[in-house]
Amino acid sequence: MTHTNMKLEQALEIQALVDGQLEAVRKPEVQRLIQEDVAAAALALELSALHTVVRTHESALTVPESREFYWSQIQRRIVAGDAVATRKRDSGTILGWIRWLAPALGVAAMVVVISRALIGPVGGPVASADVLTFRSDIDRVTIHWIN
What we know:
Layout: H1 8-19, H2 27-36, H3 38-57, H4 67-119, E1 131-136, E2 141-146
Antiparallel strand pairs: 1-2
C-alpha cells in the first residue's frame, strides 16, 4: 500500500519505530504523528504486522564457527586486497611506460623500414619500387605494401 500524502522521511521514521531502532528523542513526535495521521497509523499497522510475520516465520540459523573466525577471514581478505592494490599501483608505472613505449617503438621501426625501402641500400632512391595499396572502408584501414 502506498502512502502518497506522507513524506519519505516520516515513513522511514515509522519503520524505525516499529523495528525498535528509532532514536529516543524522535519517538514522542513519531508516536504523535501515528495517533493524528490516518495514513501514518495505517503504515505503522502494516509494518507491525509484517514485522510480526517475519519474526515468527524466520528460521533460526546457526553456524559452527564463531564471530571472531568470520571477522578474521574478512580482515585477512581486506589485507590481501590491499596488497594486490599496492602491487598493481607499483607495477602500473612500469606498465604505463611499456604501454606508451611499445607503440612508439613500433612507429619508429616502421619509419626505418619504409625509409630504407625508399632510399635503398646504396643511398639513392629505388628505381623500381612496386607499391600495392589496399583500402577497406568497412574496417577503416589502409595498407600500403612496398616491394
